[in-house]
């Protein structure tokens, strides 16, 4: 394992993108992510503090990480999040973004933007109020749509809308979401349902392949591929041929993009994970709390990346779901 230079794995993938989960709690219970009830949450003492997160981010930056995304659980239920954003922003990453369900975004958009957040991805799986409520089990569509406006008004752009498609539940809204992209300039990203739901109800035929989404949209509005400046980005990007709007397809299951993956994740309780689907965890919390040096933190970061497998293995016969589900890892 190299002890100098950028964070590289055995397959030559250089890691520049760190996803930081700040909590495993969420105020929604999306069917594809969390159970309706019965999930126990981490005690506060086990969560990394803002000091600890900032320190780790700084060490990661010294190893070549250039982009941070804050996630959860729902990151905006963590108290004082704008103050963490301000501290991370001061470090000067090329990108500092947040993924949110939008429920608290309307209230916090201004302070997040003032703190230095660049942009947000807002999850929204239906544009029909009742269906939104049935997929997300809590929350309210109008609040989320208003929050998108507030985020744009605060300058958190380009705003991306994340849509997890579930066969028979919301796949009849593909064109409605394509229209949203065309009408608002928001980048709508269709995400394949992955085997990371806490209910363990994932089945392959419940996901809607990205290819199908492409065909259904382009039959109405022809699409053109956008050549990607960032090869490691998970979404395949398309513009509408008439020049109005953009969509993204995140086909994690049917067309895995592991070969260009440059992402590393930090769970809310301080474990580094090199893949959503790997159970291999490398704790930094112990190092942080036992007086470890930056050199020791760097070593854990390097080891976590070096241990990464070539792919997530979902499509291989022996695939086993990871023990932690999406909200506990940080999406
Ligand atoms: N609470 C925030 C939110 O709702 O965006 C951030 C965390 S959430 C885990 C991050 C993203 O993961 C969301 O866009 C969500 O829709 C997506 N997600 C959660 N479970 C998923 C699954 N089983 N398959 C695909 N995407 C999933």
Structure description:
With 331 residues, the protein is of the alpha/beta class. Helices cover 30% and strands 17% of the residues. The chain has helices spanning 50-62, 81-91, 105-115, 129-136, 141-153, 174-184, 210-218, 285-289, 294-306, 326-329; strands at residues 17-21, 67-71, 95-100, 119-123, 160-165, 187-192, 223-225, 236-240, 246-250, 263-266, 271-273, 281-283. A twelve-stranded mixed beta sheet has the order 7-8-9-6-5-4-3-2-1-10-11-12. A hairpin with a 5-residue loop joins strand 8 and strand 9 (246-250). Helix 1 (50-62) packs parallel to helix 2, helix 2 runs parallel beside helix 3 (105-115) and helix 3 runs parallel beside helix 5 (141-153). It is globular, with a radius of gyration of 19 Å. The chain starts with 16 loop residues before the first strand and ends with a helix. The structure holds S-adenosylmethionine. S-adenosylmethionine binds at residues 26, 32-33, 71-72, 74, 99-101, 123, 162, 164, 191, 193-194, 196-197, 326-327, 331.
Summarize the structure in short.
With 331 residues, the chain is of the alpha/beta class.
């Amino acid at each position: 394992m190299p002890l100098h230079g950028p964070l590289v794995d055995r397959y030559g993938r250089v890691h520049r993108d760190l996803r930081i989960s700040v909590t495993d709690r969420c105020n929604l219970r999306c069917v594809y992510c969390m159970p309706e009830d019965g999930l126990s949450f981490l005690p506060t003492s086990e969560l990394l503090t803002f000091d600890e997160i900032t320190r780790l981010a700084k060490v990661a930056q010294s190893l070549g990480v250039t982009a941070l995304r804050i996630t959860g659980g729902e990151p905006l239920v963590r108290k004082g999040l704008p103050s963490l954003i301000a501290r991370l922003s001061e470090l000067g990453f090329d990108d500092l973004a947040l993924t949110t369900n939008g429920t608290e975004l309307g209230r916090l958009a201004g302070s997040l933007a003032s703190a230095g957040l660049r942009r947000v991805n807002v999850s929204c799986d239906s544009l029909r109020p009742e269906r939104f409520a049935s997929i997300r089990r809590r929350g309210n569509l109008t609040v989320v749509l208003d929050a998108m406006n507030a985020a744009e008004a605060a300058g958190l752009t380009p705003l991306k809308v994340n849509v997890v498609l579930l066969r028979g539940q919301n796949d009849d809204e593909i064109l409605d979401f394509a229209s949203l992209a065309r009408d608002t300039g928001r980048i709508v990203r269709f995400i394949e349902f992955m085997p990371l739901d806490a209910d363990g109800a994932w089945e392959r035929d419940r996901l809607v392949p990205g290819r199908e989404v492409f065909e259904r949209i382009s039959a109405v509005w022809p699409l053109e591929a956008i050549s990607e400046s960032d090869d490691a980005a998970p979404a395949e990007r398309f513009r509408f041929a008439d020049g109005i709007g953009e969509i993204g397809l995140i086909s994690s299951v049917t067309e895995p993009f592991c070969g260009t993956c440059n992402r590393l994740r930090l769970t809310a309780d301080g474990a580094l994970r090199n893949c959503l689907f790997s159970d291999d965890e490398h704790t930094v919390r112990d190092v942080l709390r036992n007086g470890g040096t930056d050199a020791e933190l760097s070593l854990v970061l390097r080891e976590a990346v070096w241990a990464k497998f070539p792919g997530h293995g979902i499509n291989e016969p022996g695939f086993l779901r990871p023990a932690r589900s999406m909200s506990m890892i940080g999406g």
